Amino acid sequence: MLNSKLKKLIIGGCMLVMAGTVIGGCGSSTQTTSNKLIVGTNATFVPFEFKDEKTQDYTGFDIDLIRAIGKRINKDVELKNVAFDALIPALNTHDIDVAASGMTITKARSEKVLFSSPYYENALL
To answer: Per-residue pLDDT tens for 23-68?
Structure first.
């Protein structure tokens, strides 16, 4: 298990990378200046993103991370639960500003959207 200081360092680094990606994408002439960050997620991937049965609020690592990034860049985060296969098309049509949904970086996906640096690596079986 990682110690607390290392966890904070990793999360802080991820936040900076994701914030840079979000801010860098804000220069498009089709986007309006808004204080809202529209985040697409597919809330079915515990522990990264899921809907809490008691509160009916979205929660999980990716959700906490994107909310921390929103706070850091002074943007209100609006979460949209989207079918996983619709996340990349929603990014490309600017229906969402960023996807936070435990998405594995693949060559095919990288040809369609920009990814942050990986912050979690899954072992392949």
So the answer is: 445 444 445 568 999 999 999 999 999 999 999 999 999 999 999 9
d(CA 91, CA 39): 9
Residue in this structure with the two tokens 């920009």, named with its chain if needed: 114
CA 112 to CA 125: how far, in whole Å?
Answer: 27
**How much is the pTM?**
0.71
Q: Label residue 17 exposed, middle or buried (CB < 10 Å: 0-12, 13-18, 19+).
A: middle
21 touches 97 (CB < 8 A): no
Given phi > 0 = left and psi -120 to 50 = alpha, else beta, which region is 74? left
